Amino acid sequence: MENLARFSDAIHAYEDPSYLDGPNFASFEQAFKYLAHLSEKNDRLILVIDEFPYLAKAYPPISSMLQSYIDHYFKQKKLFLILCGSSMSFMEKRVLGYKSPLYGRKTAQFKLKPFSLHDAEEFFPQLNKEEVFELNAITGGIPLYLSLMSPKKSLRENIKDNFLTTSAMLYAEPMSLLNQELREPASYSSIISAIAAGASRQSEISTKTGIASGALSPYLDNLIDLGIVEKRLPVTELDKARSRKTIYAIKDGMFRFWYTFVGKRVSFIERGITEPILDYIIKQLPHFMGPEFEKLSQEYLWSKLFDPDLVPEPFVNLGNWWGPDPKEKKQVEMDIVGFDDQKLNGYFGECKWKNEPISADILETLIYRSRLFPTPKKNYYLFSKTGFTDKCQQLAQQVDCHLITFDSKHPIARYLSPPSQ
């Protein structure tokens, strides 16, 4: 068995770094016995089994065997066992799940999160912050996907080489992951496509996919568990057990990019027609980056939670808001809404990822919509990719609005004090 041979080689190489070749252990059981013995000679022996799901599928008895050795041998030894896996459904159900032979034997669990912008900047120190932000967004912050991007190429070239080339990994990655993690991958793909096309409520997704609304919930729950889709509520509804304002959005950046720009153009890509698609992607990218900039802006405010110059009283909730405006008689949205514990301070913000400065009318609209909330003290924030017009800066000074811009020279958006007169 190839897995046993590689496992044997790793053990022998640990004992003797000059090891090149030798006999394999007769079985995994024999290898584990040897490791238990070997751990007695060390202060601590660390055993890491990467991509454990692949080993378990190739050799199903491995989980029960590990259970036995953990219970009867490893607990008394100085052996530290780490199981890793990229298949979240397998790790959660067949390693951590109640029915797993390994249930109850963990000392800790870690779910690795995507790279933040700061993490990605360290990945690409030679690129400016805007370029890193865009690459991190379209790859979902996954280190493997980021490693495919060349810092020597333009964003357009990286997109073409990694998403619009049929032999590229990311061209086939979404369907590959759905096939790996889920039954009925075609149904799940149609659901993600519907959300990418603008269907956000369960009834809308049902209409677009043809899946009955009642039958849709398990599909959505599975996509949420995998981190591909997220359930979203207005910040004012977060404490409610149920809400009619629930919507669904694609959470994973790579999936969102692929289903927004690649999935429905596969027939063109497979015929080598990529330049018009690239033109469209580059033109629409600011719109795609908008929600990513909203998240970054919200994260920035969370990072300043105890900075009284920016946040007078710590907020307990902060997020997006959408709902009816009785005066306008229509549904409106706000990028940032938050409240302190006593609801004495309200925090209201707008975020614009555009190649033009924010004008005063954006701030005027923000002030107007903030009146939908009866907080005595209102704090305003504008987040911009490129800056603010003179009129906007003048109005910001009058209403004490904080102006925050995306700055490629710093590891996080830089705080700009309201301009002095």
Automatic annotation (TrEMBL):
Lineage: superkingdom: Bacteria
Record domain ATPase: where: 33-147
Gene Ontology MF annotations: ATP binding; hydrolase activity
InterPro entries, per the entry: ATPase_dom (IPR011579), DUF234 (IPR004256), P-loop_NTPase (IPR027417), Restrct_endonuc-II-like (IPR011335), WH_DNA-bd_sf (IPR036390)
Residue stretches making up the DUF234 domain: 258-355
Pfam families the record matches: ATPase_2, DUF234
Keyword terms of this UniProt record: ATP-binding, Hydrolase, Nucleotide-binding
Residues annotated as signal peptide: none
Protein name listed in UniProt: ATP-binding protein
Species whose genome carries this gene: Lactobacillus delbrueckii subsp. lactis
Taxonomic path: Bacteria, Bacillati, Bacillota, Bacilli, Lactobacillales
